[in-house]
Structure formats: C-alpha cells, structure tokens
Design goal:
Length: 460
C-alpha cells in the first residue's frame, strides 16, 4: 500500500477559509493581474521567523481549478474550495439546467456566510440532450459549459454519449451558436481498444473530426495524459497560426472571415504530470493512484530529469508543419526522436493552451480499497504544491502563475483573480487521510513531504 501513513487530519472545509493555513486553502475566491516574485523572505513577523526553513516564496495570483469534483451531501461540504468548474457526474447526473441551478444552490448553501466562491456549473451531455436545453443553459447564466463523457468511460458516466456525431451533432451546433464550451473526457470506450490507447484513439476518431467539422466550437480536452494529446493541441494551435498567417498575407483579404481551429485547450492534473503507470503497481496494487484516464507510460509524463525544452520547441515547430502536410507518419517519427516528458514539457513551456484542472475526485477510502475500487485521485489539498514541484524541476517557476491563474480565465474570457496567494518553500507533511463526517479520504502523495506550502497572502 501507500508510503508511510502516519497522520490524520480533518478534511479542510470551506469554513477554514479565507484565513486558513491549511495547504488546501490556496484554492478559494476570485479576482486581476499579478506579480510573480521570487525573493528572499523578509522575515516580517514572529510566525515567519518560526518558519526556519522559509527562504524563498512565490506570490502569485490566486489560482482557479478548471476541473473539479465536489460531489454532493457530506463530501460536498467537506471538500469545497474556490472558483472552479464543477463536474456534473453525480448520481443521477446533472443533465438539465434546472438540476444545475439546484446543484449550484446546494453548493452555495454549503459555504459559510461571507465566503466568495464561484461555482461554474456544467451540464452532463447525453444522447438525449436537446438544443433547447443548451439555449436554456445559456439563458440561465448559471451553466458555464457542457461536459462530454463517452458512455462508460469513467465514474458515473453510464448515461454519457454513445455516438457523438450520430446523436449529438445538433446540440454541438447549438453550443457554437450559444458560445458554450465543450469539456471532453477524451477516451473511447470500445472494448477492443487497449485502456492505454484510449485517449489516442479518441483523438483520431472523435476529436480531430469534430474540430474539422465545428472549428468554432471551444473545446477543452480535460486531464490529458499522452504525447498524442499534446501533439493534437499543438497541431490545432499550429494550424490556426498558419491559417492566420496565410490569410493576412497578400493572398487573402480578410482573415476574420475565416474560421481557425484555434479554440482547443487542455487541462492537466498533478498526477498525470508526476506519476507514470508504475505508481499503480509499486510494492503491490496502489488503489489511491488509480484514476481515469489511467496513468500512462513514462514517455508521456514527467521523468526525474528536467524536460528538454529544445526538443519541445522542435516538436512544436514540426507539428505546425505536420498539420499542413497532414502526414501522420511525420508525427510518429517525431515521437520517436523526442520521447519523454511530453506533458510536463508542454505545460512548462509557457504555452497558453494548458491550464490547471486538478480533476480532484474524492472517494471514501473504503470505496477505493475494495475489490472493485473507484477511479479518482483526491489531489485538492496537495495540487498546488505538486504543480510548483513540476515547474521548479523544469526550471520554469516563472511560468507557474500563467498555468495556475492566467491561461484558464484568458481562454474562457473571464477576468483573472485579483487576490494573491503565497507559496513558501517550506517542507510540510501530507496527512495520511482527511476525515469527513462519514469517513476518510486518502489524498495524493499521502504521508509524503512536499516542499511548497501554499497559504493566503495575509500580511505585508
Ligand atoms: O473522469 C474521472 C471522474 C472522476 C470521478 O471520480 O468522478 N474520477 C476519475 O478518475 N476520472
């Protein structure tokens, strides 16, 4: 089982906010520009002095979470954070605007008075969702996006979509008209496709054709796990840039009349940056590292060595050419030449196409450890420390804030948060479990020591 499980902590609650010193407290409230400062701490007061290890700190704009599961009932109260896109895969799922409005109220009721938290609600797309529902969703002012789960792809996805083009196309067209983003769990569920290939096949069969058919649709590929996904995102970006360049050149008149496939972005979880599939089997079966999409090969995630930025830049350049040539072989060759750390390289490169989405998915410990355990990793309390670790190891701490706090709101056309948080270079131990009223939840990196400690910016 997991490494050293020694301490237990009460699960961080919203009421702990905004002055809480819990590592989870970084996630709350909203609001504009920023400053990343990396500096020697001035030891402003006694508390700071007590933090002997504190020698560096980062002040960044308060992050958001663009992919979060807060559940309902007791777990909802236990895990609620900040401004976040709230996933709709409850039991039963949030398939209508009316239910989304209700669920939002439940979330707001779970907040202590005075807490400013903005839940951005989503609709769960089914084969039977109607274009009228999308209009209602837009009119409600509450529903922010629509989530596509291929039926059977993950937790509570049995009511998801069975045939995107056959059953949902009119709805997707309406989403374009309503400027409603589509959030995608990008895995096919075809039993003949190997679990580890499901993301790649989804891109080939669904996502690439969808971008071609509806290039105006804003799409976020959630929790990407493979180099294939990075290539896809870069290809869309490359094609958009190239078309823009061609159209602004003397050959074409008004490039605004053309539609660019530049509306595709991705969220990335801490686990898909830091862990590979070995983490599922190290020293025995590790249910708390099981999530969907499942962890992938080392070549897709982070390695011990820092990602090679030169390789990434080359890959990006070739991708742009590739998109023009539409030649699959070329990209496959490139994957052979530049293997490894695809996701970490992309995320830490400074590209605006990637942003923070933890997919933090709490399940009670007993539901994770039973004979058929649930998929989902509870990362909310540790996520920011882990993202900081990835950027630090890549020598790219100066790009952390864009990933956590700018790229998401910029892509969605929302204001950036005003408030700041502090990340101190100060070792802290992740509790073995977080308790809530009916049980306990094991967090990612349980029992281990992390180096970046987030908290609200309360002084100076
Ligand atoms: O997409 C998802 C859903 C999530 C959950 O538990 O809701 N758990 C996962 O591992 N992946």
């Amino acid at each position: 089982m997991q490494a050293a499980a020694t301490t237990t902590t009460t699960i961080p609650t919203v009421s702990a906010h905004p002055r809480a010193k819990s590592p989870s407290a970084f996630f709350l409230r909203s609001s504009v520009p920023c400053r990343v400062s990396f500096r020697a701490a001035p030891l402003p007061n006694l508390r700071a002095t007590a933090m002997a290890a504190m020698s560096q700190q980062l002040i960044i704009t308060r992050p958001d979470d663009w992919h979060l599961h807060v559940r309902d009932g007791e777990v909802l109260e236990a895990v609620l954070p900040h401004r976040a896109i709230i996933m709709p895969n409850l039991k039963p799922p949030v398939t209508t605007t009316a239910r989304a409005v209700e669920y939002r109220e439940e979330i707001m009721k779970a907040l202590p008075p005075g807490t400013s938290f903005l839940p951005l609600m989503t609709l769960y797309l089914t084969d039977n969702t109607s274009p009228e529902e999308i209009k209602l969703a837009r009119e409600s002012g509450v529903v922010f996006a629509v989530k596509l789960y291929p039926a059977g792809a993950t937790t509570n996805s049995q009511d998801g979509v069975t045939d995107v083009f056959g059953k949902c196309f009119p709805v997707l067209e309406e989403m374009v008209r309503q400027e409603m983003p589509l959030l995608v769990h990008g895995e096919v569920t075809d039993p003949h496709v190997d679990t580890f290939d499901r993301e790649k096949v989804f891109i080939d069969r669904i996502l690439a054709p969808l971008v071609q058919k509806l290039p105006q649709l804003k799409i976020v590929m959630e929790h990407i796990t493979t180099m294939d996904a990075v290539n896809f995102i870069e290809s869309c970006e490359g094609a958009a840039l190239l078309l823009q360049w061609l159209c602004t050149s003397a050959l074409f008149y008004d490039y605004n009349t053309f539609i660019f496939p530049g509306h595709v972005a991705a969220t990335v979880t801490p686990q898909h940056l830091l862990l590979n599939r070995n983490a599922l089997f190290q020293g025995g079966l590790q249910p708390h590292n099981y999530c969907l999409p499942v962890l992938k090969r080392e070549t897709h995630s982070m390695s011990q060595s820092p990602p090679n930025k030169k390789c990434y830049q080359l890959l990006q350049m070739h991708n742009h050419i590739y998109f023009v040539l539409m030649n699959n072989t070329l990209i496959n060759c490139l994957s052979t030449f530049y293997p490894g750390q695809a996701i970490a390289s992309a995320v830490t490169s400074g590209s605006k196409r990637y942003f923070l989405g933890t997919d933090s998915a709490p399940h009670d410990k007993k539901n994770k450890e039973r004979s058929c355990g649930c998929a989902g990793i509870y990362s909310a309390p540790v996520a920011l420390s882990l993202y900081a670790k990835v950027f630090e190891e890549a020598g790219a701490l100066d790009k952390l804030e864009a990933f956590t706090s700018f790229n998401g709101p910029d892509f969605y056309g929302l204001p950036r948060n005003n408030s700041k948080i502090v990340l101190r270079k100060s070792a802290w131990k992740v509790p073995a479990t977080y308790r809530y009223s009916s049980g306990e939840i094991v967090p990612m990196s349980t029992g281990s020591t992390l180096e970046w400690l987030p908290s609200d910016q309360t002084e100076e």
